[in-house]
Amino acid sequence: MDALQLSWLVQLVKIDGVIDDAEEIIIRRIARNAGIDLGQLAEPGGFDNLDDSDKVRLFYQCMLLAAVDGELSASEIDFLKGLGKSLGINADNQEKALEMLENGQVDLSPEQISDLLN
Fold first, then answer.
1. Does the N terminus or the C terminus of the chain have fewer Cβ atoms within 10 A?
2. What pTM was estimated for this model as a whole?
3. pLDDT of 86-108, one tens digit each?
4. How far is CA 48 from CA 30, 54, 69, 88, in A?
5. Is residue 116 very low, low, confident or very high in pLDDT (cuts 50, 70, 90)?
6. Is 13 exposed, middle or buried (CB count within 10 Å of its CB: 0-12, 13-18, 19+)?
7. Angstrom distance (rounded) from CA 58 to CA 63
8. What's the count of helices (H) and strands (E) in the chain, helices before strands?
9. 3, 36 in Cβ contact below 8 A?
């Protein structure tokens, strides 16, 4: 996890205006494990330096983080759709992934994850 990816995760937890305790714990743990100071984190930028697998991983990590509090808000869904579009994940695959998430299926197989970019 690099600072760019973490900055997108932070934006996601802020999107609905409520930072759940579990979300905060996860963000802090990721930052600590990656050696990133949350106080020095910049606004998220572009994705030019991410390869396809990193893009899918970022989308998947955001999906998991959105689901950690047990509910998906409309703002989280909109955020994920916008992020998916920016990452080059086609709309049909985004919908499939979000439908799985809404149905409680967050443990995607490697094949399902790689299918997100196809």
1. C
2. 0.79
3. 988 888 888 888 888 777 776 66
4. 22, 11, 31, 12
5. low
6. buried
7. 9
8. 6, 0
9. yes
Tally Cβ neighbours within 10 Å of residue 116. 23
Say how far apart CA 114 and CA 107 lie, in whole Å.
13
The Cα–Cα gap between 52 and 27 comes to 23
Burial class (CB in 10 A: 0-12, 13-18, 19+), 93: middle
In the prediction, which pLDDT does 115 show? 67
- Who contacts 33 (Cβ-Cβ below 8 Å, separation ≥6)? 1
